[in-house]
Amino acid sequence: MRLPESQVAVLNAASATDERTIAQLAEATDQKPETVTGAVFDLRDEGLVSVTETAAESVELTDEGVEYAEEDLPEVRLYRAALDVGDGDAVPMGQVIGASSLGGPQVDIALSNFARKGYGHIDSGELAPDAGADPDADEEAAALAALAAGESVDADVLDQLESRQLVVRHERTIRAVTLTDEGVTALMEGVEAAETVDRLTPELLTSGEWEDVEFTEYNVEADAPEARGGKKHILRQTADRVKDVLTGMGFAEMEGPHADADFWINDCLFMPQDHPARTHWDRFALDVPPMEDIPEDLIDRVRDAHLNGVGEDGDGYHSPWSEDFARAIALRGHTTSLSMRYLSGHEVGELEPPQRYFSVEKVYRNDTLDPTHLLEFYQIEGWVMAEDLSVRDLMGTFEEFYSHFGITDIQFKPHYNPYTEPSFELFGRHPETGELIEIGNSGMFREEVLRPLGVKCDVMAWGLALERLLMLMYGFDDIRDVHGTLCDLDLLRETEVLK
Ligand code: PHE
Asked: Has 336 been labeled as part of a binding site?
């Protein structure tokens, strides 16, 4: 029988009576464990060896565990210091800690374990060691020493050490190999090593050698090293796709500052200056000089809308309006600031209807972090300016937009915004949980917004959350899976955004 060299070596090193582990075979054959494992699987498939698998656990001391194995547990050091300083009596805590030369987080570790293990009591700032305690009989200390010496220890103590992060456990599979009867027979009949080649080369063909060589089988199930190159984040990929879709729908992209004057973020939107969203609770104010470059006549018109309202029977907010407050700079809480800049003519000049603009950009809110809220997220902002727009146009636009992402069951709920009338929140159904989740906010800009900007036709507008769109597309339910330190790396690595 002819077999690849590595298999012949393993077959010769294996025994019919004693199990040999992969590690032992690797050593005996002077081959890498991976090579031996591969050879063993092939030999098993050929019926020449049998393999048993057992799960084994190995325990390793962490750096902290090693330190305590060498220098005693912090609670033991504390106990000994207390005895030294007070001769068995209660002593002020500061004094004991000083004498123990424990520092940093070890002080807390020492104190909590001191009490837990009955080394004594801590009362009104004093530490009273228990004369009956015996640090030499400390189970955890003994277990650490045993582990450091390569011995095994009791499961309960091990759990305790693990919860203190003094050890880590690793699960492994130990494979042991024995020769089968066929294996023994094959060996007796003689097994020859065949030179194996893993690819057919022109040289093999021209020399005719291909007739004699053994080709390694192509094993599609073999573990292969995973290649992880850099990759565009799925949020960015989806943002790009959103841009493509909106561009395809005839929209042009807006650009503008992340840190902007409150004037553009709120005042233009007829948001009263004492609106709760404009307090320091919700807003990331920046300590930078106020914005100078705002058209004076626009400021006058916006101020007038706030004070007196717009139109014959319009009404204002009956509260003071401060230009200083309007010029102050903050991180934008929505990208509707960009819509205001463009609609006012400040960015690309006066716009004649029809017009369509969008942006897919970051916004910042002083929220509390939870599974659906982040301090920053991406908003898909957009607006359409035209004569005679209706709510049907708004809904139709969303239906068309979301259908590009396979989402066809958008629901609308009447809503209130100071700047749109009517206003609608958008909801979509989460593919995994079945819950309706809010995915955006929209409406038709009010006269109080449009008139000061100098826009004389209708404008429908929206702000949609990019992260929520992703949730509907991929079914994850915690926004922190894609953002920040808790993000799910496998999800980010494996998810593909379809074009
Ligand atoms: N600015 C709104 C938000 O952040 C979205 C919106 C934009 C609503 C434009 C209506 C019109 O929720």
From this structure: yes
